[in-house]
């Protein structure tokens, strides 16, 4: 009754919700919760009747709120309950119908079982077994074929058909995975895996062969094989490793061959040496051939790398043209192509750096200070061509090569210049200061040392090949890799042609023997000529005859006078002067090749001239020399006897002209301090006692006379 009264009392929904929320969580935990026990345990030790009644009223209100809430929810869900009850009733009817159908089916199956005989069922069983055996036979035949594929794979590898071998091996692996439920297939799978690894090893060997002798068809097969394996990036990494190894092995074998050849024995100690130590055993005679072969071998490696890059560029273009914007092209192929391109571009600098380091070790392994001039020029020529290859290969300035050749050049030129000064001193000691008979049209370009100036040169063309390149200007426009891409080698030294003889000296005082013959030849053959032709001649243009015919003596005198006039215009040279000019030509040629030390070379050229000027002044221009007699011949003619060069300095000074100016004195003092004294202190002694004796002899025999 109390509960009914409580339920019937109107309660505010919000207050009712607050009453429900005040219920402890334990009442919602599970069905096994003992609420009576829980409430009894909550009673205090000392009971208060009024508190107990208040707490009881609170519990009753909570119970009434819950009951009312449940009743409201039941009323709210009443339509759904009715609808679900109808569905249950319908499901019960359908189940009854299904039970009837099953009963009828079982009855009909029992009838069918009675009507069929065991013979007909046996026939079906045999047919099914036959189909299974037929499938098994096909599987066994496939397995037998798989087991025999190793023979075919070996044949393909011998034929270097790597793509076909890999394709066949992958197909066999795919087929073997289909029949993996057979026990014999597990062994076949491991065998195929071993075969595939063997193919990869042979493929790596085939890839290494392209580093020296690049073959398009061979490289195409190798790349296609790596593509089938899905290892394009791995192949590129391996290729760069092989190129590095090829450079090391190539240079070592070339240098080792020359060292063993020069040693003359089969001592194996050289094979155990490091490459840098091996380069120190190269002799001077074999240095240039070994350097040439070294550069040839390195060229083969670099041109193979260049052709490799060309192959990838062409195939990238073909792939792009065949599938423009093809969505089927996988992202993996695009990534592989980009990786290969970047790897090849970065490999250019790496390979050229390896080449430079190997050649640098060879250059610095030998002291070239005692080389002949022509041999040293050949070395510079080869290195210059190698630096040109580096410029075209990867746009490198070849700083490593330049630094190494600069070190050797400075060392060589220092000794070379010292020897030339000593040679010039010997020339001055033995100089008679007589006129050197040269032709009237003499020019320094006629000397062998200045031939390089008249050739059409390009900064990238080495001196020894300028003559060859000038004869074929069309080839100059092509790079070295374009000229020698398929065959040939830029480091093959041209066959030495016979040196052109210098035709600068006059013969017997004349320009040539033919001129002398024309001047002094007796015209004995004139007896066979008619008299009228001896006396007169007819002008071919006018048809008139001259008033008087020229005699043979008149013609001879005219020729002699013309020759003397040309000879008077010829330059006045001595043997020492000609030698200094030749040295200047050699130094200029070295400047054109050795641009890093060109300043040092031009400084040495000025030393040559300073030394020659100082020597000439010492011989002929000193103030303590007597004034030459005015009656001495001051010109050098053909009939003036032996040519003697006389210095007029004292004569000019005595006349007050002051030829020896303060500027000249300053120059002579500079030469004395910076050149003569410096070399005398170093032990060379440019003004030697013999040279001083020569000076005294010239003063006694020429000036005093």
From TrEMBL:
<dbReference type="GO" id="GO:0005829">
    <property type="term" value="C:cytosol"/>
</dbReference>
<dbReference type="InterPro" id="IPR040047">
    <property type="entry name" value="VPS50"/>
</dbReference>
<keyword id="KW-0813">Transport</keyword>
<feature type="domain" description="Vacuolar protein sorting-associated protein 54 N-terminal">
    <location>
        <begin position="20"/>
        <end position="311"/>
    </location>
</feature>
<dbReference type="GO" id="GO:0015031">
    <property type="term" value="P:protein transport"/>
</dbReference>
<keyword id="KW-0175">Coiled coil</keyword>
<feature type="coiled-coil region">
    <location>
        <begin position="182"/>
        <end position="209"/>
    </location>
</feature>
<dbReference type="InterPro" id="IPR019515">
    <property type="entry name" value="VPS54_N"/>
</dbReference>
<protein>
    <recommendedName>
        <fullName>Vacuolar protein sorting-associated protein 54 N-terminal domain-containing protein</fullName>
    </recommendedName>
</protein>
<dbReference type="GO" id="GO:1990745">
    <property type="term" value="C:EARP complex"/>
</dbReference>
<dbReference type="GO" id="GO:0000149">
    <property type="term" value="F:SNARE binding"/>
</dbReference>
<keyword id="KW-0653">Protein transport</keyword>
<feature type="region of interest" description="Disordered">
    <location>
        <begin position="315"/>
        <end position="334"/>
    </location>
</feature>
<dbReference type="Pfam" id="PF10475">
    <property type="entry name" value="Vps54_N"/>
</dbReference>
<dbReference type="GO" id="GO:0032456">
    <property type="term" value="P:endocytic recycling"/>
</dbReference>
<dbReference type="GO" id="GO:0042147">
    <property type="term" value="P:retrograde transport, endosome to Golgi"/>
</dbReference>
């Amino acid at each position: 009754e109390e509960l009914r009264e409580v339920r019937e009392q109107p309660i505010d929904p919000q207050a009712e919700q607050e009453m429900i929320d005040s219920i402890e969580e334990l009442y919602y935990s599970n069905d096994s919760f003992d609420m009576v026990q829980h409430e009894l345990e909550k009673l205090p030790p000392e009971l208060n009747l009024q508190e107990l009644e208040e707490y009881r009223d609170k519990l009753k209100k909570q119970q009434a709120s819950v009951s009312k809430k449940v009743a409201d929810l039941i009323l709210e869900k009443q339509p759904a309950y009715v609808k679900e009850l109808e569905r249950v009733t319908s499901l019960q009817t359908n189940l009854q119908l299904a039970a009837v159908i099953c009963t009828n089916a079982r009855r009909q199956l029992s009838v069918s079982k009675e009507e069929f005989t065991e013979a007909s069922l046996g026939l079906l069983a045999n047919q099914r077994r036959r189909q299974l055996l037929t499938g098994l036979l096909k599987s066994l035949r496939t397995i037998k074929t798989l087991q025999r594929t190793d023979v075919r794979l070996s044949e393909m590898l011998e034929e270097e058909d790597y793509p076909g071998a890999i394709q066949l091996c992958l197909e066999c692996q795919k087929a073997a995975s289909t029949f993996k439920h057979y026990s014999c297939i597990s062994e076949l799978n491991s065998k195929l895996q071993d075969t595939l690894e063997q193919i990869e090893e042979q493929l790596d060997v085939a890839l290494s062969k392209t580093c020296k002798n690049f073959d398009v068809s061979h490289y195409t097969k190798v790349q296609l094989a790596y593509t089938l394996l899905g290892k394009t990036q791995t192949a590129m990494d391996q290729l760069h490793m092989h190129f590095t190894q090829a450079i090391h092995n190539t240079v070592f074998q070339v240098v080792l061959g020359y060292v063993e050849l020069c040693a003359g024995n089969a001592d194996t100690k050289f094979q155990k040496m490091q490459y840098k130590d091996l380069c120190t055993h190269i002799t001077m005679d074999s240095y240039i051939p070994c350097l040439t072969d070294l550069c040839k071998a390195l060229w083969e490696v670099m041109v193979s790398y260049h052709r490799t890059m060309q192959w990838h560029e062409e195939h990238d273009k073909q792939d792009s043209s065949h599938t423009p914007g093809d969505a089927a092209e996988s992202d993996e192929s695009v990534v592989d192509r980009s990786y290969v391109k970047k790897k090849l571009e970065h490999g250019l600098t790496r390979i050229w750096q390896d080449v430079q380091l190997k050649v640098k070790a060879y250059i610095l392994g030998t002291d070239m200070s005692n080389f002949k001039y022509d041999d040293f020029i050949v070395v510079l020529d080869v290195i210059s061509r190698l630096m040109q290859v580096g410029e075209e290969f990867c746009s490198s300035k070849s700083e490593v090569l330049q630094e190494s050749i600069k070190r050797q050049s400075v060392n060589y030129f220092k000794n070379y210049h010292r020897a030339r000064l000593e040679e010039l001193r010997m020339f001055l000691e033995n100089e008679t200061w007589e006129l050197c008979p040269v032709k009237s049209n003499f020019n320094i370009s006629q000397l062998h040392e200045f031939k390089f100036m008249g050739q059409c040169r390009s900064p990238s063309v080495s001196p020894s090949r300028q003559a060859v390149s000038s004869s074929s200007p069309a080839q100059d426009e092509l790079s070295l890799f374009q000229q020698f891409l398929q065959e040939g080698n830029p480091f093959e030294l041209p066959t030495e042609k016979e040196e052109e003889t210098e035709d600068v000296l006059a013969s017997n005082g004349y320009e040539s023997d033919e001129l002398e013959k024309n001047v002094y030849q007796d015209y004995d053959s004139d007896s066979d000529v008619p008299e009228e032709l001896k006396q007169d001649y007819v002008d071919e243009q006018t048809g008139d005859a001259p008033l008087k015919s020229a005699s043979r003596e008149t013609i001879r005198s005219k020729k002699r006078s013309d020759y003397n006039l040309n000879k008077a215009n010829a330059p006045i040279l001595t043997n020492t002067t000609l030698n200094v000019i030749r040295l200047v030509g050699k130094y200029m040629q070295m400047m054109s090749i050795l641009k890093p030390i060109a300043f040092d070379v031009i400084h040495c050229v000025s030393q040559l001239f300073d030394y020659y000027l100082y020597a000439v002044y010492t011989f002929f221009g000193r103030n303590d020399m007597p004034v030459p007699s005015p009656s001495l011949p001051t010109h050098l003619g053909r009939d003036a006897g032996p040519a003697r060069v006389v210095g007029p300095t004292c004569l000019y000074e005595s006349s007050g002209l002051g030829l020896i100016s303060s500027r000249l004195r300053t120059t002579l003092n500079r030469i004395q301090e910076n050149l003569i004294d410096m070399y005398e202190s170093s032990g060379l002694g440019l003004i030697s006692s013999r040279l001083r004796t020569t000076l005294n002899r010239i003063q006694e025999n020429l000036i005093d006379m």
